[in-house]
Design goal:
Elements (H helix, E strand, L loop, with lengths): L1 H20 L18 E5 L10 H6 L2 E11 L7 E6 L7 E5 L2 E9 L3 E3 L6 E11 L16 E6 L1
Antiparallel strand pairs: 1-2, 2-7, 3-8, 4-5, 5-7, 6-7
């Protein structure tokens, strides 16, 4: 029993010595950094829906719909340009397609209004207008027609 007690005492002293050997510390520093680049972001896009329009209206006077698009830019960016491309564009003519053919339309936007902020991004707002001109005899058959327009903001 005495040998067992001495063995436990010796093991305890070794462990205590290991703690004493690891009692020191060391410190160091590390850097943390980021580089923020100037950019722009389209923040809101409109859904341009003509709704329900009769064949007679399209034949005689056409239809017009408008909506607002906004984008935000870092204040250091002084020039940005929007370009729109339709999924069904033929040449430079936009088209809404349906099972019964397609309807041509024009798409345009206004010069953007600008809102500046001392602490945040510069906000630009522009109005997009889609217009179907009077189609006369080429009025489409009743049905649903649509297009998907991709707006690209270059800065």
């Amino acid at each position: 029993m005495r040998h067992l007690s001495l063995g436990l005492v010796a093991a305890g002293m070794l462990l205590a010595g290991a703690d004493a050997a690891n009692a020191g510390s060391s410190t160091g520093t590390m850097g943390v950094s980021i580089t923020v680049t100037a950019s722009c972001l389209i923040s809101t896009t409109p859904t341009l829906s003509f709704g329900n329009v009769s064949n007679a209206t399209l034949a005689q006077s056409g239809a017009t719909v408008s909506g607002t698009l906004s984008y935000e830019c870092d204040p250091t960016i002084t020039s940005a340009a929007l370009a729109a491309t339709g999924a069904n564009t033929v040449g430079s003519q936009f088209h809404m397609k349906g099972v019964n053919g397609s309807i041509p339309y024009a798409l345009s936007n206004t010069a953007p209004s600008v809102t500046t902020s001392a602490t945040g991004p510069t906000v630009y707002t522009t109005t997009y207008t889609a217009k179907i001109a009077g189609l006369g005899a080429s009025t489409p058959i009743a049905g649903s027609y649509s297009d998907t327009v991709t707006v690209t903001l270059s800065f």
